[in-house]
């Protein structure tokens, strides 16, 4: 007699970027194994492949994971991971008043949301009628931010410029439009470097105000008896 098949629970969440409802299920043991082996390899390509594979397996229905904004993927991954291990995630935070006291904290998954800034805008006015339309980082940036192992030779400035160029969608005026997908990486890089400091600050603001996974908690330092506010941002903060 074959072993019985055990039904896996299904859950529903709303994608922060679009408001679209999707269904998902928790990780299975084989999927946890895929992730663990990929992370142990410290190979970005293996990690990227594993995360894509696992998310595609766990999301029920037609959802193109690669095209989702990074904050959608973080929110989705957190919820799938949460449903796989329990309704809360246990982490260790450091009290800011002394910078050294560690405290164990349990965070309910359903309390963690994607925060949207009221001043955020994808269309950036550059002057003289030109508008730069940005797009959100997707799967590649999600992997790089949360799982990649970087060498000491990596340049933070170079990585920042690469991210900016990958997030340019188009430049347009009332009469014309230039699409980034039609430009080479060098053309985009040269164009970004030709911007004024004031124009570049608008790009920086786009990333600073971009929707992000964020949760604020208050903890009491048992040694100093002072209350600390700890802000967790990005998926990696919830697995500290």
Keywords:
4-stranded antiparallel sheet, single chain, alpha+beta, 3 domains
In short:
The protein has helices spanning 29-41, 44-58, 70-85, 139-146, 156-166, 185-193, 197-209, and strands at 11-14, 21-24, 59-60, 88-94, 102-108, 113-115, 123-127, 130-134, 168-172, 177-179, 212-220, 227-233.
Please explain how this structure is put together.
This protein has 240 residues and is α+β, with helices and mostly antiparallel strands. It folds into 3 domains: 8-86, no CATH class; 89-114 and 211-240, no CATH class; 123-146 and 156-209, no CATH class. Helices cover 35% and strands 25% of the residues. The protein has helices at 29-41, 44-58, 70-85, 139-146, 156-166, 185-193, 197-209, and strands spanning 11-14, 21-24, 59-60, 88-94, 102-108, 113-115, 123-127, 130-134, 168-172, 177-179, 212-220, 227-233. The strands form 4 sheets. Strands 7-8-9-10 form a 4-stranded antiparallel β-sheet. It has a 3-stranded antiparallel β-sheet with strand order 1-2-3. A hairpin with a 4-residue loop joins strand 9 (168-172) and strand 10 (177-179). Helix 1 packs antiparallel against helix 2 (44-58) and helix 2 (44-58) packs across helix 4 (139-146). The longest helix is centred in the N-terminal third of the chain and has 16 residues, at 70-85. The chain is globular and about 70 Å long. The model has no long low-confidence stretch (mean pLDDT 87).
